[in-house]
Design goal:
Helix content is 27%, strand content 36%. The protein is globular.
Length: 143
């Protein structure tokens, strides 16, 4: 598997953790892909990596990690008509966590997808909630 390089500390630690766990992960998935992507935002290049896993059947899990510690995880299983289940979770990686924690949570997510159904996707959220801050929410009800 090709692994890109990065000077960003979080992305570098995520890639190193993936490299160390690659063999164990590879035995559990049909396919694993890791891409480095440069996004252009407000005249500035922002680096991210995307790790995509095809797990079993038609199940796939993707994690995107941006250099500013923003993380997006997407999991879904295709069915004959649409999705059997789909789930997304995003937030900023809390300061005490590293790429190693992301890969550990990714492995837990992979394990959880073997028994997942639409009504059980909160189990996936429970894996990521301790790692990611979700930002301020409007509690006043005003728009």
């Amino acid at each position: 598997m090709y692994l890109p390089t990065s000077d960003n500390e979080l992305i570098k630690s995520t890639l190193l953790a993936l490299k160390k766990r690659h063999r164990a992960i590879n035995y559990q998935v049909r396919e694993i892909r890791c891409d480095k992507i440069i996004e252009r935002r407000e005249r500035k290049d922002i680096e991210k990596i995307e790790i995509a896993l095809s797990i079993h059947g038609q199940t796939r899990v993707t994690i995107n990690v941006w250099e500013d510690r923003w993380v997006l995880i997407d999991g879904r299983e295709s069915a004959k008509k649409g999705w059997a289940w789909e789930w997304r979770y995003d937030g900023r990686l809390l300061g005490s966590h590293t790429g190693r924690d992301l890969i550990a949570a990714l492995e837990l997510t992979m394990d959880a997808t073997f028994q997942i159904r639409k009504d059980r996707t909160p189990e996936l959220t429970a894996i990521w909630q301790p790692l990611l801050a979700r930002g301020p929410k409007d509690v006043t009800g005003k728009k």
